[in-house]
Amino acid sequence: MVNWWLILAAGLLAGATTCAVTQGGLLVGLIARQRKASGAVRRSVADDLAPVGGFLIGKLISHTVAGAALGAVGVALGLSPMVGTVALLVAGALMVVLGLSALGVPGFKNLTFTPPDSWLGAVRRQTRSGSALAPFLLGLAVLLIPCGVTLSMMMLAATSGSPMTGALVMAVFVLGTAPLFAVYGFLSARLPFGRALSTALGVLVVAFGVWTFNSGLVAGGSPVSLPLPGARGSGPGTVVSAAPGQVQEVRIQAFDQGYQPSDVTVAAGAPVKVTFTTKNVYSCILATTMPTLNQRTFLPSNGSKTLDLGVLAPGDYPIACSMGMYTATLHVR
Which residues of the chain have pLDDT under 50? Predict the structure, then answer.
């Protein structure tokens, strides 16, 4: 389960930034070819929005099917925390590269990602009809175009715990992109999109790429990462003690917005059990990891889950949600 409002927000972000750069250009070019092929001088709002609708329907279908497949694969393989970490790092790196391309930075400005020629050829052949079929085919094809935020959502689908939840993650994400793609497609027929817009989008993409890459570092337990605002819960830490040889019981409350307490200290030389409790939780924190211990667990939205960590060597053991958004630390002293 996930926080659907966060997924919608990610869709809005993608529609305004990375997907606009990687996919918006193809959609605008397609609309322009259809306008030229139709020879119409005056067009209604419906004429301009129909291609966007076809595009979004195709994208919704392909991404929902992919989300279900990723959820099934994630369950079947029991994906390790490292898979999610690598996905975030790759997504962040792609976003930075695409942003630099939009900014025209030497070495990056000619870098583009497009579907296979067979897909694009089929799409271009349909532009002469002026129907919504061509944008629909393009919507299906953009699953093959790397888009940083989309990759992050695909990773979340793969670690969601079920094919149904994986499908819903991708469907809600695509619906989140709809408003800005509609505006983008509508304005493309009326306003020139010049260098200023490309620069603004490029800066945003680079910024969010850095943020996503850093989230991957956090999710992987890297000691080299930037602190994320709001990632750690507020309040004092907790010290757990037990008689020599007895199990040290640690209880951590997992909320939609973080862990409480976010700092727990236990004694070295005694077994440790950590119990995560939840109540009406639906965010990425349900996929909780302890990356340096190669531990990952799916928490129930209501209830508790206990991890038996055994005897731990002295040190600091990070705890994070699968997206690297919320963190806590288990200190062994």
Answer: 1, 194
Q: Residue 150 and residue 75: Cα distance in Å, rounded?
A: 20
Distance CA 97, CA 210 (A): 10
- Residue tagged 């953009």 (tokens): 142
327-332 and 238-239 strand pairing:
unpaired
Which pLDDT does position 128 carry in this prediction?
54
**Of 270, 267, 318, whose CA–CA distance to 292 is shortest?**
318
Q: State the pLDDT at residue 16.
A: 57
Domains of the chain: 4-219 (no CATH), 238-332 (2.60.40.420)
Answer yes or no: pTM beyond 0.70: no
- Per-residue DSSP letter, 226: P
Q: How far apart are CA 3 and CA 95, in angstroms?
A: 23
How far is it, in rounded angstroms, from Cα 169 to Cα 150? 11
